[in-house]
Automatic annotation (TrEMBL):
<dbReference type="InterPro" id="IPR001045">
    <property type="entry name" value="Spermi_synthase"/>
</dbReference>
<comment type="subunit">
    <text>Homodimer or homotetramer.</text>
</comment>
<dbReference type="GO" id="GO:0008295">
    <property type="term" value="P:spermidine biosynthetic process"/>
</dbReference>
<protein>
    <recommendedName>
        <fullName>Polyamine aminopropyltransferase</fullName>
        <ecNumber>2.5.1.16</ecNumber>
    </recommendedName>
</protein>
<keyword id="KW-0808">Transferase</keyword>
<feature type="binding site">
    <location>
        <begin position="148"/>
        <end position="149"/>
    </location>
    <ligand>
        <name>S-methyl-5'-thioadenosine</name>
    </ligand>
</feature>
<dbReference type="InterPro" id="IPR030374">
    <property type="entry name" value="PABS"/>
</dbReference>
<dbReference type="Pfam" id="PF01564">
    <property type="entry name" value="Spermine_synth"/>
</dbReference>
<dbReference type="InterPro" id="IPR029063">
    <property type="entry name" value="SAM-dependent_MTases_sf"/>
</dbReference>
<dbReference type="GO" id="GO:0005829">
    <property type="term" value="C:cytosol"/>
</dbReference>
<feature type="binding site">
    <location>
        <begin position="166"/>
        <end position="169"/>
    </location>
    <ligand>
        <name>spermidine</name>
    </ligand>
</feature>
<dbReference type="InterPro" id="IPR035246">
    <property type="entry name" value="Spermidine_synt_N"/>
</dbReference>
<feature type="binding site">
    <location>
        <position position="117"/>
    </location>
    <ligand>
        <name>S-methyl-5'-thioadenosine</name>
    </ligand>
</feature>
<dbReference type="InterPro" id="IPR030373">
    <property type="entry name" value="PABS_CS"/>
</dbReference>
<comment type="similarity">
    <text>Belongs to the spermidine/spermine synthase family.</text>
</comment>
<feature type="active site" description="Proton acceptor">
    <location>
        <position position="166"/>
    </location>
</feature>
<feature type="binding site">
    <location>
        <position position="173"/>
    </location>
    <ligand>
        <name>S-methyl-5'-thioadenosine</name>
    </ligand>
</feature>
């Protein structure tokens, strides 16, 4: 388990030092540490940063922030929800900051949102200290289950229209959320016309994880596609997501037209996010 790295500069300023695989460090100037606890799974903290406002940090790694968290949370939810013709039952695996659940509550057509998060402390901390991201958690359609997503999904068959894997990086408790067997369980837990999406990491810094994730999903689902968004606090900014669909082609131009209030996502982004730069086409298709 990684230690959280707060560092104090000679001028007395406090910094969070995020370390990506021992190869890259990103430093955030801190105004205040609001919450810092060890859970049975990871170190959980909420800090107030100079540029990104309140920020959730797990094992020293930034997960979501008040300033750019909406980009990731909108893109992991609105893209699959627009592409599925009639999503009613949605499962989120992970997603402890509750930003994805919050985006889903914007759709009246969704009847049930199950959220399976391994670490209750993440939800408690975000509810108290990160309302900018966690938003309206009193919506009765949101049902929290505090359990391992792998175990939960294994016991389900043909239940969900959409499954959103909103996981942390593939280290610690989230490592299993990037494995072939887990995606195979997701496929079983989806209805015959279901869709799943997961965050598939940085195409620049973690190309092998993206390649492996996309390969698993392509081998299991009839249709699979990768899309991107720019999330400034994730290493490299450019971030990838991969969708698998059992029945419907992943065709943004024929996606349902629906009005939803967002800060990043819109129709043009939906249609363009599947256009990949050449280095990604080469990585995914060679
Ligand atoms: N948006 C963030 C990102 O990409 O960095 C991640 C969102 S959310 C904070 C990720 C959540 O996944 C964490 O709260 C973590 O506790 C949860 N998680 C990790 N492994 C899990 C597992 N096996 N089952 C369920 N939840 C898990």
């Amino acid at each position: 388990m990684t230690e959280v790295n707060w560092i104090e500069n000679q001028d007395g300023s406090l910094w969070l030092k995020e370390d990506d695989r021992g190869n890259l460090q990103i430093h955030y100037r801190l105004k205040e540490i609001l919450y810092s606890e060890q859970s049975p799974f990871q170190h959980v903290s909420i800090v107030d940063t100079a540029d990104f406002g309140r920020t959730l940090v797990l094992d020293g790694v930034v997960q979501t922030t008040a300033i750019d968290g909406h980009i990731y949370n909108e893109m992991i939810t609105h893209v699959p929800i627009h592409l599925h013709p009639n999503p009613k039952k949605v499962l989120i695996i992970g997603g402890g900051d509750c930003g994805a659940a919050r985006e889903l509550t914007k759709y009246e057509r969704i009847e049930q949102i199950d959220m399976v998060e391994i670490d209750e402390l993440v939800v408690k901390a975000c509810k108290t200290y990160l309302p900018e991201v966690s938003g309206n958690l009193s919506d009765p359609r949101v049902r929290f289950v505090f359990d391992d997503g792998v175990k939960f999904v294994k016991e389900k068959e043909q239940v969900y229209d959409c499954i959103i894997v909103d996981s942390s990086d593939p280290v610690g408790p989230a490592e299993v959320l990037f494995e072939y067997d887990f995606y195979a369980s997701l496929k079983r837990a989806l209805k015959d016309d279901g869709m799943m999406v997961c965050q598939s990491q940085s195409p620049i810094f973690h190309p092998s994880i993206l390649k492996q994730t996309a390969t698993h999903i392509r081998s299991l689902f009839r249709y699979a596609k990768t899309y991107t968004a720019v999330v400034p606090t994730y290493p490299g900014g450019l971030w990838s997501f991969t969708i698998g669909s059992k029945k419907y082609p992943i065709d943004p131009s024929s996606a349902r037209k629906e009005t939803v209030t967002t800060k990043y996502f819109n129709r043009g982004i939906l249609e363009s996010c599947f256009v990949l730069p050449e280095f990604m086409n080469e990585l995914l298709n060679k």
